[in-house]
Amino acid sequence: MNKRKYVAMLVAPLLIVGSCKEENRYASHVGDSDAPGKITIVDQKPLYGGARFFYDLPTDEDLLQVEAVYKAKNGKAYTFSSSYFVDSLDVYGFGSTDPHEVTLYAVDRSGNRSEPVTVSITPLEPAFSRVASSIEVKSGFSSFFLDWTNELEQNVNVYVDYSFTLNGEQRQLTTVFSSNLAEDRRFIRDLYLSPQDQVKVSVRVEDQFGNVTESVDKGSLSLYEDIEIPKANWILPDANDSVGGVPMVFGDGLEGRSAKVIDGIIDQGDNLNFMHTHSRGRTGRTADGNMPWNFIIDMGDYYELSRIVTVQRHSGGLSNINRGQYYQSENVGMYNMYAWDDAAQEWVYISQHKIPVPVGLSELEFVQAGEAGDEAYMYPDDPKYTKPTRWFRYEAIKSFNGNYTLEDANCLSEITLYGRKVNQ
Description:
The protein is mainly beta and 424 residues long. It has 4 helices and 25 strands. The chain has helices at 3-26, 127-134, 363-372, 401-404; strands at 40-47, 50-56, 63-71, 77-83, 88-92, 100-108, 117-121, 136-139, 144-149, 156-166, 169-179, 183-188, 198-207, 216-222, 227-228, 242-243, 246-247, 275-276, 293-311, 332-341, 346-354, 374-377, 389-399, 411-412, 414-421.
């Protein structure tokens, strides 16, 4: 007999047996009331706000999964499950580092549960309380902001309770931020209070399992004041004219005009209110490529700068309900800021800003976010004013494309600056 045929004849029955055995596992077991055998706990490991259980499975052919159940302080039972293909199961949602009891079952395809195996576990500090302890609150310009870390990237809600007196009336407000980012920063904006008006702040953090921290007092803040710098006296250098060795961008390409960036009118629909480099960046010459390019503003007087609001090109159609080019296409996604130092006769770097792309928005919500513009502080981590300056430089360095790696941004709709006037 051919040797290859002989081997095949020996192997075939084994494949059939294995196949039948696996088919039995997935076969319908309606009416089966036999509970599977218990699992055997081999080891357990505390996690942040949870636990990981390692176990040996019973040998039942119709075994489907392992379930773990525990009851939270609010009386609600939470169930976690894991396929029979793996030998461990993670459980989360414990609200404290107190010992918790978890009951584990083997479950077959008919839904029969095995005898319970109850295990006591003492978890590590849960994610929501770790987030709460990491929160820092800082004063901003007509605003304040919160920074926090969430290294486990679990879903949390951060409740910000704040109160202040406005026009003799006591105001008490609450803002809620939902997040699962490893690091996050959120603003409470448009609080037009003087530095003498105190804002009292406290925070609470809640997880998806209903656990919530006690209110954490963050003290009282004094906010910073600034004004929108009037554009009536702003002057733009001619294209390719240099200020401190840096050439002004050519912004009059195609339908664009540099003057549109400081006219107080944003690009909406198809009103074509933007500048366009026509890929003439760097020194303003086509051969020099597209980016970086510099938009330079003579503010006509001396100011200490606090923040900037930029608006992108839209060009989303006459109906103005489509996203258009917002947060993509030819728009600037990352830029540097500089102020001219008269004493040193040089440009002084202020900071870099990357415009975040909103997620989960509808087309109309993209339009609303784009029209509102993107705000950035001159010094984002430590809000303060720049030294007095008359000249401001906006250096466009990356587009949104390729996750902020490409240098193909051509357009900008509007720049608005904030600060306070300085008497020189």
